[in-house]
Amino acid sequence: MDWVKIIHLLCVLGWMTGIFAVPRGLIYWKREYASLGKMGPAGDFTFRLYRFAAGLGVIALVTGLWLAWVWWSFAAWTLLKLALVLVIAAHYVWTGLLVRDAMRGRFGHGETWYRVFNEVSVLVVIAVLWVVVVKPF
């Protein structure tokens, strides 16, 4: 069972890289697009990172559900964690929509908006970590 935890943690770390880096990458992509008029290396990197991290996110969700079910029998704190993870997943899907728009040359927001959007995920991740460590109920 420990190997499932290891896989879960590794995939969570990879997914978090995408969650934190892709919105920041959109800022650099927007600047690059304004300069070049087309997608350059920043856009390519951001797209590839989003896609790679999404796969890791799926594995993290599956292994997390398995751990919650088998290891902790869906204890109350795991349900709260799952709810928070679903918020993070929804944020990541929204990020994917922003990446899709950027692929089409549409950047509908300014740099400040992308920065704030990026920090929202940090706050939710902090809440997840608190739930996992403290196990409030």
Mean pLDDT: 96
Ends apart, CA distance between termini? 23 Å
| Amount of beta strand | under 5%
Instruction: Return residue spans where pLDDT drops below 50 for at least 5 consecutive residues.
Output: none
What is the count of β-strands?
A: 0
Number of helices: 4
Rg from alpha-carbon coordinates: 17 Å
* Topology order in helix (H) and strand (E) letters: HHHH
Helix content: over 70%
Shape field: elongated
Biggest pleated-sheet summary: none
What structural class is derived from the secondary structure elements?
mainly alpha
**Whole-number total of structural domains:** 1
Give the SSE layout.
Elements: H1 2-36, H2 41-71, H3 76-103, H4 111-134
Textual characterization of the structure:
It is found in: Cell membrane. Belongs to the HemJ family. Catalyzes the oxidation of protoporphyrinogen IX to protoporphyrin IX. The chain has 137 residues and is an all-alpha fold. It has one domain (2-134). It has 4 helices and no strands. The protein is elongated, with a radius of gyration of 17 Å. The two termini are 23 Å apart. The model has no long low-confidence stretch (mean pLDDT 96).
Précis, in short:
The protein has four helices and no strands. It is mainly α. It has one domain (2-134).
Features:
about 140 residues; mainly alpha; 4 helices; elongated
